[in-house]
Automatic annotation (TrEMBL):
Source organism: Nocardia africana
Cofactor requirements of the protein: Mg(2+)
Database matches in InterPro entries: NUDIX_hydrolase-like_dom_sf, NUDIX_hydrolase_CS, NUDIX_hydrolase_dom
Protein name per Swiss-Prot or TrEMBL: NUDIX domain-containing protein
Gene3D superfamilies per the UniProt record, alphabetical: Nucleoside Triphosphate Pyrophosphohydrolase
Nudix hydrolase domain span: 14-142
CDD domains per UniProt: NUDIX_Hydrolase
Keywords recorded for this protein, A-Z: Hydrolase
Length: 151
């Protein structure tokens, strides 16, 4: 095939998947205070983590909830809230899920990365938050299930 007829191939985008938990107690949502992570330390953030290989997003959320805050969530109690295509680190898919029922905790199971846990009213969020998380919560409040951030 001559160079004139060859097509240039574009590298496929590789994306990291993140799951975020909106653990709700009435009109309040649970946040953790980031410490010693090297990224946005001092900011409040939802319990969250990366999707691992061979793991569904619901399984990842259930696992992260247990690992980070010691709560046991039944898969049928996980409700999808929002998908954000975030430009950070070359592109991430951040999935946000609502949970109103759980067993155990919450307790801080990662004190080396989390300085405190705190409940905040959804209409009075903490002043210092990671920007994309605040944007996602605004979309969720407006019942928008998809957004693009930072592109």
């Amino acid at each position: 095939m001559s160079s004139a007829t060859q097509t240039t191939r574009t590298e496929r985008h590789k994306v990291t998947g993140d799951v975020h938990l909106l653990l709700r107690r009435g009109d309040e949502v649970l946040f953790g205070l980031r410490e010693n992570t090297g990224y946005e330390d001092g900011a409040w953030h939802l319990p969250a983590g990366h999707l691992e290989a061979d793991e569904s997003v619901v399984d990842a959320l259930v696992r992260e909830a247990d690992e980070e805050i010691g709560v046991c969530i039944a898969r049928e109690d996980v409700r999808f809230a929002h998908l954000m295509h975030n430009s950070s680190s070359g592109g991430r898919m951040a999935l946000f899920f609502l949970v109103d029922r759980w067993e155990g905790g919450p307790e801080n199971r990662e004190p080396e990365k989390c300085g405190a846990l705190g409940w905040f009213p959804i209409d009075n969020l903490p002043n210092r938050m990671i920007d994309y998380c605040r944007a996602a919560l605004e979309h969720i409040a407006a019942d928008r299930q998809f957004s693009v951030y930072g592109w």
